[in-house]
Every structure is written in C-alpha cells, then in structure tokens.
Amino acid sequence: EAKQSGRAQSCFFLPKMHERVVQRVYFETSLRDALAKRQFSLYYQPQFDVNKSLVGMEALIRWNHPDRGLVAPGEFIPFAEESKLIIKIGAWVLIEACQTKADWFKNGVFQDSNMSINVSALQFSQDNFVDQVKYALDKSGVNPSTIELELTESMLVDDQEDVIKKMNSLKELGVLISLDDFGTGYSSLSYLTRLPIDQLKIDQSFVSSLSDGTRESTIAASIINIGHNLNMEVIAEGVEQESQFEWLKSQGCDLFQGYGLGRPMPEDELLARFK
Ligand code: C2E
Ligand code: MG
Ligand code: MG
Ligand code: MG
C-alpha cells in the first residue's frame, strides 16, 4: 500500500514540479526583458502629517506583465534578487523616482514633499551604489534633500565599516535615510547611535494590532520614543483605521502612511487627488 501511494504521489508530484520550474524560467525570462520593454511603473503611496496634510510619497514598483496584468513586488522582487536583476531594476527605480520628483517640482506640485525610494539589500551592497544615487540626482536635477532612501536593518549589519562609509557618503549627497520595516530585523540597536539615520518607519505588523495595552502598542510607542530621543522622525506604515491613526498621533508619531489614508496609486491619480 505504501508503494502504491508512493507512486501515486510521485505521479502527482512530478508534473507539478515540472510546471513550477517552467513557470519560474518563463517568469525570470520575462523579468529579464521587462526593463527593455518598459513594463515597470511606479505607484505612489501618500504620506501624511498629524494634520493629514500630504508631506511625502513612497514610490512602489509594479510590473505590468503582458499575461498576468499588474504584478505586485512581493511576487517578483524575490526572483529579481536571486537573478541579480534587482540591481538594474533598482537603478531604474532611482532614476524614475528622482525624475518624477524633479518634474513635479518644475511644475510647481508637491514641492514641499519628500519622495521615498526603496533600496534592496543587493543594490545597497554594490560598490557603486553611492555613484548610482549620485547619477540619479545629477541626471534629474532633483533637490537631494527631498529624496529619502528606505533601507532595512538587515543591510546595516554586514560590514560595519563599509556601511558607515556608504551612509556617510549618501548624507554628503544630501539625501535622507529611512529605516523601513523597523522592529522586524536584527535586534541590535547600537547601530542607531552610529549611523546617520533620519527616519524610523514602524513596521505595519506593529500598527495592525494597535490599541492600548497590546504588546504591539508597547513596541510602537517605544519606537517613537527611541526615534525622538535620537532626533529622528518616526513614520507609521500600514495605518488602516482611524483609531490607529489617533492612537499613534497621541503617542507623538510624526507621519502616517496606509490604506486608511491613501493606497498606492499611479502618478495621474496622485496628481488628480492631491495636487
Ligand atoms: P514596503 O517598502 O514596506 O512597502 C509597504 C508595502 O505595504 C507596500 O506593498 C504597500 O502597498 C503596503 N501597504 C501600504 N499601506 C498598507 C496598509 O494599510 N495595509 C497593508 N496591508 N499594506 C499596506 P507593495 O507595494 O506590494 O510592496 C511590497 C514590498 O516590496 C515593499 O515593502 C518593498 O519592500 C518592496 N518594494 C516595493 N517597491 C520596491 C522598489 O522599487 N524597490 C525595491 N527594492 N523594493 C520594493
Ligand atoms: Mg518601503
Ligand atoms: Mg515597510
Ligand atoms: Mg514591509
């Protein structure tokens, strides 16, 4: 009986495995072409201050796949990382987001807002990362102090000397640095005192279960305190409900981002709604 079910299982398993490999090869091949075919675009999610005035936006990549439609980054960034395509894609994101911000400024829109740009670990670890940023700034002519790079904790633990040097060079270019998904990465907080970080971004996992007395609310409040005591701005992501906004506001949180305030949207829509 065991033999039989084993056979049945392998019959079932093999085609599935095969299908997956084919899918993956196909996906990776089309990902390789996607830049040349201009299938990537940026969506923008608004960020607000305590008065719910728009003060920034985060650029979030989307892949307009010919067969699959709009693909979210969670579905292709892992492939892009594995195949190292993320390096080229990330360079494109930098240029596109800086250019868009520069164009807005020229047209008199969102002039006081910051543009947040996600950086991948592999992208950040490249020797020429700072040059990549400088290139995007120079090419677009954007005001560097309106560009905020979102790094994650995991990028900061590798080679401390190298990381500090890179971040200082980025600061010399005049850009801002934010720590994305804060609280979910490595637990060593000592780097917060050594690295030039402008903003902490409270991870949405803490925000989603906020209300007085939950463990998550204790962590969120602590992050706000740590950030403020180190002269950093604190932003909460994943704010879906008014009660979350109110609670975070009462704790002194500076900025807010989430579906409850505005979803990621194409440039046209952002301009139509917030200009
Ligand atoms: P992230 O940087 O932490 O971005 C926040 C993600 O949470 C976005 O998902 C956003 O749409 C989503 N989000 C915002 N508000 C809410 C909310 O209220 N509730 C919930 N449930 N989700 C919310 P998205 O756009 O699918 O991006 C996922 C991740 O992909 C990003 O997480 C970021 O790590 C990565 N990513 C996106 N764009 C880029 C990019 O241009 N370059 C790189 N390297 N990574 C990117
Ligand atoms: Mg982000
Ligand atoms: Mg995040
Ligand atoms: Mg996240």
Q: What report would you give on this structure?
A:
This is cyclic-guanylate-specific phosphodiesterase. Residues 24-275 form the EAL domain. It comes from Marinomonas balearica. It is a single chain. The chain is α/β, with parallel strands linked by helices and 275 residues long. The protein is 49% helix and 20% strand. The chain has eleven helices and nine strands. The chain has helices at residues 2-34, 73-82, 85-106, 121-125, 129-140, 160-173, 191-194, 204-207, 215-229, 242-250, 267-274, and strands at 40-48, 54-65, 69-71, 114-118, 147-152, 176-182, 199-202, 233-237, 255-257. Strands 1, 2, 3, 4, 5, 6, 7, 8 and 9 form a nine-stranded mixed sheet that branches. Helix 7 (191-194) links the parallel strand 6 and strand 7 (199-202). The radius of gyration is 21 Å and the shape is globular. The N and C termini lie far apart (69 Å). Mean pLDDT is 91; it is low at 1-10. Residues 180-181, 201, 237 line the site of one magnesium ion.
Which terms summarize this structure?
275 residues, alpha/beta, 9-stranded mixed beta sheet, disordered N terminus, binds ligand C2E, binds magnesium ion, cyclic-guanylate-specific phosphodiesterase
Itemize the secondary structure elements and their pairings.
Layout: H1 2-34, E1 40-48, E2 54-65, E3 69-71, H2 73-82, H3 85-106, E4 114-118, H4 121-125, H5 129-140, E5 147-152, H6 160-173, E6 176-182, H7 191-194, E7 199-202, H8 204-207, H9 215-229, E8 233-237, H10 242-250, E9 255-257, H11 267-274
Parallel strand pairs: 2-4, 4-5, 5-6, 6-7, 7-8, 8-9
Antiparallel strand pairs: 1-2, 2-3
Helix pairs in contact: 2-3, 3-5, 5-6
Bound molecules: ligand C2E and magnesium ion (3 copies).
Organism: Marinomonas balearica
Keywords: c-di-GMP, Membrane, Transmembrane, Transmembrane helix
GO molecular function, one term: cyclic-guanylate-specific phosphodiesterase activity
